[in-house]
Amino acid sequence: MIDKKPFDGTTVKEFPKVGRYRVRVLQQGRNGDLDTVLDIREHMESERYSGFTRRGIRLYDMKDVESLYETCRMILEDKLLAQKKEGSDA
């Protein structure tokens, strides 16, 4: 079981936006004791708030990342999601 303690890490790499989500690799710890996670999180910008929300996921294990990759691959191959229409912001 994974410890659910807060993970306030340093950004190792940030990838291009995916819709309203940001994809980052975060790292926490010092010296040889470094934990790394894949963080996929909603990022919001408005007059009242700018920053990451609690909506998102963190994957701590390469096996989980590979499973997500395979799931996304199957969704793309089977064309299970609708294409965004031109001129649409939805």
Written account of the structure:
- This protein has one domain (10-77): Transcriptional Co-activator pc4, Chain A (Roll), CATH 2.30.31.
- The protein is 18% helix and 38% strand.
- It is built from 1 helix and 4 strands.
- It has one helix spanning 62-77; strands at residues 10-14, 21-28, 35-45, 50-59.
- It has a 4-stranded antiparallel sheet.
- The model has no long low-confidence stretch (mean pLDDT 85).
Core attributes:
90 residues; alpha+beta; Transcriptional Co-activator pc4, Chain A; 4-stranded antiparallel sheet; 1 helix
Return the CATH topology: Transcriptional Co-activator pc4, Chain A
N-end to C-end Cα span:
37 Å
Shape: flat
Give the DSSP E fraction (strand runs of 2 or more residues). Answer: 35-45%
- Along the chain, the helix and strand elements come as EEEEH
Any guess at the CATH architecture?
Roll
Strand order within the widest beta sheet: 1-2-3-4
The tally of domains stands at: 1
Q: What's the total number of strands?
A: 4
Structural class: alpha+beta
Mean pLDDT: 85
The number of distinct helices, counting runs of at least 4 residues, comes to 1
Q: Would you state the CATH class?
A: Mainly Beta
**pLDDT under 50 segments (min length 5)?**
none
Major beta sheet summary: 4 strands, antiparallel
Task: Return Rg in Å.
Answer: 16 Å
Helix content: 10-25%
Record the SSE blueprint.
Elements: E1 10-14, E2 21-28, E3 35-45, E4 50-59, H1 62-77
Antiparallel strand pairs: 1-2, 2-3, 3-4
What's this, in brief?
By secondary structure, the protein is of the alpha+beta class. The protein has one helix at residues 62-77, and strands at 10-14, 21-28, 35-45, 50-59.
